[in-house]
Amino acid sequence: MIQKAEEALGFSYAPYSHFKVAASLLTASGTVYTGCNIENAAYSPGNCAERTAMFKAVSEGERDFSAICIVNEDAEGGHGICPPCGVCRQVMMEFCRPDDFYIILAADEAHYEIYTLEELLPLGFGPGNLEG
Fold first, then answer.
1. Which phi and psi angles does 127 have, rounded to 5°?
2. 4-55, pLDDT tens digit by residue?
3. What is the rounded distance in angstroms from the CA atom of residue 24 to the CA atom of residue 36?
4. 63, 27 in Cβ contact below 8 A?
5. Which end of the chain is more exposed for a tag (fewer CB within 10 A), N or C?
6. Which residue in 129, 121, 80, 130 sits closest to 99, CA to CA?
7. Is 50 known to be catalytic?
């Protein structure tokens, strides 16, 4: 998953922040969807890598996800641990089981951390909160 995410960094469109982010999303069926961040001169219409991958998968009919891997590259070409923003965590909450959806934060194939969505979004609000 780290390698797939690293490959997607090349598609990042980050002319303003120069901070590239890419993600690979693993479905329960074994399919991997990738995404990258896409910036916009007006800022708010941009999209994060994680949501790009997730929206691609959902738009293809996928609804069952196992894990996502997130990588980044800064303006100097450095790589570090890059956690998902709050909006991305909320989108993950919509489609993933917080206790067994894994988020891999990778600087490279040798340096990474793995968390569950529940660890990164404790007391998250999701579809279960609206069940009556």
1. -55, -35
2. 999 999 999 999 999 999 999 999 999 999 999 999 999 999 999 999 999 9
3. 9
4. no
5. C
6. 121
7. yes
The arrangement of strands across the sheet holding 111-116 comes to 32-36, 20-27, 65-73, 102-108, 111-116
Per DSSP bridges, beta strands 20-27 and 65-73 are antiparallel
Q: How far is CA 115 from CA 41, 73, 83, 95, 121, in A?
A: 33, 21, 10, 17, 10
- Domain 2-130 matching CATH 3.40.140.10: the answer reads yes
Question: Which two three-digit tokens encode residue 21?
Answer: 């982010």
* pTM of the predicted structure, to 2 decimals: 0.96
Q: Is residue 67 within a helix (H) or strand (E), and if so which, with residue range?
A: strand 65-73
Question: Domain boundaries in the chain?
Answer: 2-130
Residue range 106-129, pLDDT digits in tens = 999 999 999 999 999 999 999 999
